[in-house]
Amino acid sequence: MRLNPALEVARKDLLSFFRSKSTLFWTLAFPILMMLLFSSMFGGRGAMFTVAVVDRDGGTISRAFLDGLNSTNVTRLISSESVDEARSLVKDGKADALLIVPRGFSGNLTSGSSAELIIYTSEDPQVRTAVTNMLKGFIDAFSEEYRKRALAVLEERMPPEIQGGGMNLTRRRAIDYLQSLAEPVRLRIASVAKPEVTSDTAAYWKEEGHWVTVMLAYTLIFSGMVGAASLLAYEKLLGTVKRLIASPASRWSLLTGKLLGGLAILTLSQVILVLLTILWLRPEVSWTPLIIPIVVAGDLASLGLGLLVVELSPNPKAASEAVTTVGIMLQFVSGLYFPLSFLPGPLRSLAEAIPFTWAVKALDGLMVMGEGLESVIAPAAYLAVAALVFTSLAWILFPRWARVE
Amino acid sequence: MNALEVERLTKVYGEVRALDSVTFSVVEGEIFGLLGPNGSGKTTLMEVVAGIRSPTSGSVRVFGLDAFRRREEVSRLIGFNPQETMLYGDLSGWENLRFVAALYGLDGREFRERVKELSEILGIRHFLDRRVDRLSGGQRRRISLMASVLHSPRLLILDEPTVGLDPEARRDFWDVIWRLRDEGSTILLSTHYMEEADELCDRVAIIDRGRVVALGRPEELKRRHGGTARVIVYPKLRLLEEVERVLREMGLEVTRTGDGLAVETGNPEERVPRLTAYLSSRGLRPERIEIRSPTLEDVFLNLTGRPLAEVMG
Ligand SMILES: Nc1ncnc2c1ncn2[C@@H]1O[C@H](COP(=O)(O)OP(=O)(O)OP(=O)(O)O)[C@@H](O)[C@H]1O
Ligand SMILES: [Mg+2]
């Protein structure tokens, strides 16, 4: 087994890669554009709205209210000293709304009166609706919690029987009565197979760390397959495959060369993409060398799959259509852009069987959730087996594909 | 020793018999031509020999080695230049050559010296550094040919090496092929240009529909199958009928070919002066007289009943 022809195949493919503008676009520019677009839509430290707050009350309850609002991840609060200052923040587009907590907010609530909040939003009707809905939603949740606590306090202090005016109420009935006054109609929200809100679901849109996974996995799923496929298919398109098989170089070295070239291209792209993600989003990610086996095995599995698809296709054009289709589908079912729980049942089980899904999960686990070795072994092994199976099949089918029948 | 022995080689694609029990051998040191129309099986034959297609049956030996059982050794003996130039358009000529050389285990100084030597023979020095997809067809062909001879193959297989080149470029290419032969290569080439087979090749196999219909030196083929030479007389058009009558009076067999009158003769050098003198004496001096020796075209026509050019479309 001479290595030189393999290295030369790899070297030549790398040269071609750097000279093809469209390949460079799809492997490097496209994922970056996607990250810039989506992270500004959903990201920005997780907040969708910025609200300037003037807390004129400054009491315990107002502070608890604002802290709660701040922790929803939907809003980012900027506290302002004066209404004028806050108003100019909204005018300059630095904030979407202005929220005033009037003096006496906490006092009113604790003394049993209702409290009031004042909100000014920008004139943009979309922002207006979105901000008010979001605030109403939060206030509802806050009020419900408040009600529960107030009733609990009341229940505790109330005598077991209340008598007077000919009425005789038990404590239970009195509380129920108060409850019905506070909330005449109650909506009980139950759901059918509600997606479990786990930390990885949340991670998709809120954690910048997931973008590192996206960059690594986009490359290993899409660029790997499409790259390997075009590296092989273009030999047929140019007819150069005839020269390859007329030469004494073995199919071992030809295919090893393709894999090495592909791996070099993918690794390089991954390094570049991750560096750009770090620069742009500054994600909080636990960096660990444990991602390396996942990425390398994943790269090889996807390269092997690309080679295999080409060899199974009747011609280079069909091959390129096939890898593009499969590559795009895999991106969507592997949990790259949304959690698997969003998928309908049967598709979800299918997705869970795909090795690339395991790669996405493992990468998120390692980098976003700080998991360790225990979450690497199985996915890495599965990916390595997939790589081995795909490349072996590609090796077996190579002569049949390369020869003119 | 024979450079190539092809025996009862048959290749069937579904319904098509692309090669039908082809047998011939190529002697070391010769330029051997395969002449045949489109679809006659030239490419199929050469690609089977080069190991790119597998045959349905038959055997191929290259310098005595079985071409199918001893693929690796045989692949080092053969240099194959395909019909289409097979190069990577996004790489330069030099990068293409470097790559092909590596496939044959040739690198470093050995490679550079070989390129230097060959670029002189092929006249390609000045465009080796340019991207191949920015070169002309003729320049690409030269680089492609060079890629096939880098490893100094003993048997060089060239599939229609000059198709699409203008006559001058084609002649330049012949010079290259002769020089490669002088360097020690045996050459098997295919063509559908009959002058190419005639002037360039030592021996020619004429193939039609997958069968070898004739094989030998061009002169031999023309002598055996080309028929006799013809003298064609072109009189003024208004005198055409009268001249035809006079020629028949001389006891000659005359056939019309367009504006001319053809007379078959075994000895044109003697016939022409006599004809001119006689016609002049009757005041019928021809405008133009042509001598047509038999060509490989005639050989093909006589053997298959179809003209080579017509089959070519
Ligand atoms: N891969 C293939 N599958 C089916 N039929 C084929 C294939 N390749 C060639 N043929 C058929 O085999 C016959 C011989 O083709 P081949 O290419 O060998 O001819 P050729 O002499 O090289 O023609 P040309 O001068 O046009 O290059 C033709 O009828 C062709 O259609
Ligand atoms: Mg051909």
Describe what you observe in this structure:
The complex is a heterodimer of chains A (405) and B (313). Chain A is of the alpha/beta class and 405 residues long. Chain A contains 16 helices and six strands. Chain A has two domains: 233 residues, no CATH class; 111 residues, 3-Layer(aba) Sandwich (abc type-2 transporter like fold), CATH 3.40.1710. Chain A has a four-stranded mixed sheet with strand order 2-1-3-4, with helices on both faces. In chain A, β1, α3 and β2 form a beta-alpha-beta unit. In chain A, α9 packs antiparallel against α13. The two termini of chain A are 27 Å apart. Chain B contains twelve helices and 14 strands. Chain B has a six-stranded mixed sheet, with helices on both faces. In chain B, α8 packs across α11. The radius of gyration of chain B is 24 Å and the shape is elongated. The model of chain B has no long low-confidence stretch (mean pLDDT 90). Chains A and B meet through α1 and α10 of A and α2 and α3 of B. The site of magnesium ion (MG) has 5 residues of chain B, from α1.
Keywords:
heterodimer, A: 405 residues, alpha/beta, abc type-2 transporter like fold, 2 domains, 4-stranded mixed β-sheet, two-stranded antiparallel ribbon, 6 strands, 67% helix, elongated, B: 313 residues, 6-stranded mixed β-sheet, 4-stranded antiparallel β-sheet, 14 strands, binds adenosine-5'-triphosphate, binds magnesium ion
Short characterization:
With 405 residues, chain A is α/β, with parallel strands linked by helices.
Name the chain pair with the biggest interface and residue counts per chain.
A-B, 27 and 30 residues
How much strand content do the residues of chain A show? 5-15%
Enumerate the strands of the largest sheet of chain A in spatial order, edge to edge or round the barrel: 2-1-3-4
Structural class of chain B: alpha/beta
Q: In order across it, which strands form the biggest sheet of chain B?
A: 6-7-8-3-9-10
Helicity level of chain B: 25-40%
Order of helices and strands of chain B: EEEHEEHEHHHEHEHEEHEHEEHEHH
